[in-house]
Recover the amino acids of this structure.
């Protein structure tokens, strides 16, 4: 079967020196449109107590001179991005009243280089010769046929001449130079089912993903992702200007976003590859229903806001479809407190973040592994009263002991495998491989 998916390919601009000034002017114009629209929204907000919607802002901005600096669809895209930023702020301020609304794209007397998106009528792509022609707005044209012609190079394994079509092209300043992002529709052939085995995955914040395979548990910690967030967020704050983010601050944001995207792609690639190699044809993924609507306190809300469970699921879904792994979205309700062996759902069984001790059958094990096993059992249910576990979590007689003493007795005959992200290779490796 053939499916159509969306892919984004990055192209390095080969004639950077020739096109840099033209792209700089477009990036500056995009920032100006953003700032004028942001100022307009502020005035309407002060007068009415409401933020104007996307349609209202577009109608107003079409009469502003800066609107014609870009192709009409490119200008519209800037307003759409501003409206999305306001919506994200609305969602966040329910949990964090101190959350700041979208700011101005300005540092001192200059504007940073904003990303410019070119939709269907704003570019002409020549993939055979690795060239793309980008439109200017009427205000920036020296003649009616004036445009920016970029020569680009993609990775050796990417041939855009084989792609059905590019939906849009984005000119992105990466902190050092301009690059092109081609958003394309691609046709891919899917394979038959990878196998008859079933697995469950528990998504979390400390352990980004914990997988219960039929015969083993696999943990994917998020340490490197946390370190990146700390480093680049600190770089962003250290370089924040009085009138908005500086160029270095914008670089830090983009660098963090790129690293996160790479991390999640590699993570989901590794998970689907493991499924295929183990003959797993169905993967049940935990889905925290309404978790973002709950109030977990200031620190908890901040962590949940950056928790990319929906992004991970989307990546798993389309990559699994290509490789013959069916990815199911299952509600994770009660999976963290329910015993994967006997089904006891006493809340106190979750002794602490990483430990699960069942008060009924004395099962002791890793809490995330227990949750992942419960996800697996959502698609392989066992009759009540029967042993529901996969044999990887050990039962130890701890009767008569307090919860704290039980915690000291916790052990497993089969320790879960731990896959750590190796920065040098940009891939996940087992703990033993990384240490060696």
């Amino acid at each position: 079967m053939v499916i159509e998916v969306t892919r984004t390919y990055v192209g390095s601009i080969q004639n950077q020196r020739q096109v840099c000034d033209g792209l700089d002017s477009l990036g500056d114009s995009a920032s100006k449109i953003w700032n004028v629209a942001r100022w307009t929204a502020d005035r309407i907000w002060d007068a009415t107590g409401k933020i104007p919607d996307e349609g209202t802002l577009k109608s107003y901005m079409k009469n502003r001179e800066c609107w014609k600096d870009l192709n009409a669809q490119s200008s519209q895209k800037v307003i759409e991005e501003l409206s999305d930023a306001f919506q994200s702020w609305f969602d966040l301020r329910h949990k964090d009243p101190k959350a700041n609304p979208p700011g101005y794209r300005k540092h001192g007397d200059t504007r940073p280089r904003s990303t410019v998106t070119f939709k269907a009528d704003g570019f002409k792509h020549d993939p055979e010769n690795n060239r793309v022609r980008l439109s200017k707005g009427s205000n920036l044209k020296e003649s009616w046929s004036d445009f920016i012609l970029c020569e680009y190079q993609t990775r050796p394994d990417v041939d855009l001449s084989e792609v059905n079509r590019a939906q849009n092209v984005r000119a992105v300043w990466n902190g050092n130079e301009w690059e092109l992002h081609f958003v394309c529709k691609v046709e891919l052939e899917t394979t038959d089912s990878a196998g008859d085995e079933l697995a469950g995955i528990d998504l979390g914040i400390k352990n980004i993903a914990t997988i219960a395979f039929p015969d083993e548990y696999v943990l994917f910690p998020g340490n490197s992702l946390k370190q990146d967030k700390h480093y680049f967020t600190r770089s962003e704050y250290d370089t924040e200007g009085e009138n908005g983010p500086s160029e270095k601050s914008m670089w830090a944001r983009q660098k963090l976003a790129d690293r996160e995207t790479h991390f999640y792609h590699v993570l989901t690639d590794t998970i689907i590859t493991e499924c295929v190699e183990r003959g797993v044809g169905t993967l049940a993924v935990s889905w925290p229903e309404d978790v973002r609507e709950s109030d977990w306190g200031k620190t908890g809300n901040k962590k949940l806001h950056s928790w990319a469970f929906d992004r991970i699921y989307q990546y798993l879904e389309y990559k699994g479809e290509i490789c013959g792994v069916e990815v199911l979205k299952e509600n994770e309700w009660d999976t963290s407190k329910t015993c994967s062996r006997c089904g006891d759902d006493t809340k106190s069984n979750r002794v602490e973040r990483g430990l699960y001790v069942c008060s009924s059958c004395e099962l002791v094990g890793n809490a995330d592994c227990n949750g992942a096993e419960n996800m697996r059992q959502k698609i392989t249910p066992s009759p009540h009263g029967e042993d529901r576990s996969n044999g990887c979590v050990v039962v130890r007689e701890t009767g008569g002991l307090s919860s704290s003493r039980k915690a000291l007795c916790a052990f497993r005959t089969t320790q879960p495998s731990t896959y750590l992200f190796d920065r040098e290779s940009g891939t996940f490796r087992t703990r033993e491989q990384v240490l060696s």
Remarks:
- The first strand starts at residue 2 and ends at 13.
